[in-house]
Amino acid sequence: MHNKKQHNPWLWIPMLSAAEEIPFVVVTYVALLMFVQFGVGFGMASLYVSLLAVPWILKSFVRSKVRSAGYFKFRIHVAQGLIFLMMMLIEITINHWHCNTLLLFAILFIMSGLCAWHELLSKMYYERMLYPREQILFHTTKVLATQTTMVLTYGVLIIIVGFLEVFFRSISKAWAMESYLVAGGFFFFVMSNLALLKNPRICNSYRYESMARTVKAEIHIIERIRRKAGSKRVIFVLFFLLLPQALMFNSRVFYLLTPVDAGGLGCTIHEVGFAQGTIGVLAFSFGIVIGRRLVRTFGHRIFWLMAVSIVLSPLCYMTMTLHPHYDDMLALCIMTLLAQFFFGLGLNICYFFVRFISGERYRNTINYLYVPLVAAALFVPMMASGWMCQWLGFRTFFIIDAASALLPLVLLPALGIKQLLTYEDR
Question: Helix H segments across 258-328?
Fold first, then answer.
């Protein structure tokens, strides 16, 4: 048994969470900004970033194999070392290979796969190091570390990139320096985890039985989706609920960065970092937290509030295009705050759909299903959004996006949503 000094969750949980979040932010948000600034075009930037989500869609299908392989601590160190190597290759690609975007995408794709693997290992290590009551106790610590890291990586570092572009008068030099900073920060957490992470301490039969039940649920969940009455209908509705958000995910950044004479707001990169990476991330996180508390407190009675909230988010961006406030940072921050808050609050609606598919007997599979199901629903619209912006223009695009957000409010009653809300697995 480890003593308290060796096993101190107040130290290793923030360090492990930060090491988990930094590369995720790079492949999810920072990569899009890099591709746009390196001139690949909106369509190809959307394609690249959408493909980077493939490992996250597929990760749960290898979850049981990763779990059965064990050696979580050792494999976490290996994953972090390989991720650090990919970060250094990104800097070399930008600085020495003249921003070869195809090579950059290949490196980021490998890094995305490593991130998905690292995320699985981190969750399993977390379960082995903490008993269920301890996991509840340190949940807030984990969330705060995750969100702080996201703000620093997507917000503060992108703001610094903007100033570096002015200082160096070179986009490639600015991004190369940013890659150095990200890699250096990540290396600090790699070394901290090397010192702080200990061998898993929970090896009782209850833990193994719980894992066995989870693995069994995972093996049968695909067949359950195929056979369960209403599953296809639920996935169909979920797709249309998330469609406006998927279309908006990349296009909101395109709109901010596009010059005014081309229909955008003409924001600088550091303005995007402040509005989206700082204000937006905090608002989204706040919305997620409030939504989860409402779901736990009120259950299915809060469903329609979530449905309306997720509809309001695209309406904010439509308003920005219909009534643009050029050079007004306050207006941009307010609209971004509202859009991201409503998105975070409304995204909790996915819980009801995943619970319907997984059933009450398979509570542990909710987390297993949630990320790949949501990522799969977002995949194709995200990929198409860049070309749609180019063909339709931002104003028309966001009007169509907002109109599509109203469709689920019609579909939900028509397809018998009451059955979904009151479903109990027997």
Answer: 269-274, 281-298, 303-322
